[in-house]
Design goal:
Elements lengths: L8 H100 L4 E9 L2 E8 L2 H13 L3 E11 L5 E9 L8
Antiparallel strand pairs: 1-2, 2-4, 3-4
């Protein structure tokens, strides 16, 4: 006779499958939580590492900014020193010029003209004096124009102060010698 198993084997198989499925789901959940935890830990470590690198870079940038500021200050000081050197050099080159100018005045003033005032503003001279005749003022103007250190710039006035003398005001510009480079 054949044996017939009347036990609910299908029910038992179904419960075993549910149990295995539950264990599999729990294992998958645990594995997913573990993978997520490891991923979170790795991402957190990477973010901390990048934050440290960013902080180091910020600190280095601050140091470099200070160095750049120092370099800019040094550049400004260098430009100021160069400007001072150029001024000193130009003063050194022009130092003998005023000696030549005064020597020229001493040589070209005609007899009968007496200077009462000689004012210099930059390279322009204002010359005031007294003369015995207007002809001598004309000679003085020609002498200024012919000199190598002065250029005639104009006559402002000639006025008769008393019967024998006249006062005058004229202007001249300081020039360099012929052929000199400035």
């Amino acid at each position: 006779m054949p044996r017939i198993n009347l036990l609910p084997w299908r029910e038992q198989q179904r419960t075993e499958r549910k149990k295995a499925f539950g264990v599999g789901m729990f294992g998958a959940f645990i594995a997913a939580v573990a993978v997520a935890g490891v991923a979170w830990f790795l991402v957190s470590q990477m973010m901390d590492s990048q934050t440290d690198r960013n902080n180091k870079l910020r600190a280095e940038i601050k140091v470099l900014d200070k160095q750049i500021e120092e370099i800019n200050n040094l550049e400004q000081q260098k430009q100021q020193h160069i400007a001072r050197m150029q001024i000193i050099e130009s003063l050194q080159r022009s130092r003998p010029e005023i000696v030549h100018v005064f020597d020229t005045f001493a040589r070209i003033i005609p007899d009968g003209i007496y200077l009462t005032s000689l004012q210099q503003n930059n390279r322009r001279f204002r010359i005031q004096g007294v003369t015995q005749s207007a002809q001598r003022v004309s000679n003085f103007m020609r002498a200024i124009e012919d000199s190598e250190w002065l250029n005639y710039d104009g006559l402002d006035q000639v006025s008769r102060s008393n019967g024998q003398s006249s006062s005058f005001t004229l202007y001249a510009n300081q020039a360099g010698p012929q052929g000199a480079t400035k």
